[in-house]
Amino acid sequence: MISSNRIRLKGGxxxxxxxxxxxxxxxxxxxxxxxxxxLAVCEDIVQDVFLAFYEKPRIFENLYQVKSFFYTSIRNxxxxxxxxxxxxxxYKDYQLKGEAEVDFFxxxxxxxxxxxxxxxxxxxxxxxxxQVLLLVLKDYSNKEIAEKIGIAISTVxxxxxxxxxxxxxxxxxxxxxxxxxxxxx
Length: 185
Hints:
The protein has 185 residues and is mainly α.
């Protein structure tokens, strides 16, 4: 149930809906893009699901159920959109059946959740280190990063190395989770 822009979970825990939106929007949009290649349509679908969620309060056991609701709703909205547009053969590839659809759905859910976890950890890095890493991920050279931020190239290399070390340490558990998921298939 939502009250004062908060998602209420059983047990009294509350989550701010704006924080939830900002932390999951990019991942949910990416998830939708696996069904529909048009990014603007994907963003509209994710926003529609958030609006429907906001307008019709629900009570969930935990945050995982909230996320599951969003993944399922987004997938259903995407499939409805595909049917409504009388898709061509290209889009029929996105209409997966039976086991293949389930594998695709859960595989994408794991990929998006891993992306969200990595993104959260990157956001926890110190400001300059985070800036350096984000620019590295955008394929900037060390020289370009140094010029853009106004630091020495050696400092860029140091921040990059430290950021990678921190992320490796923090994300060790993510790798274990992924391996256990693969074994369960």
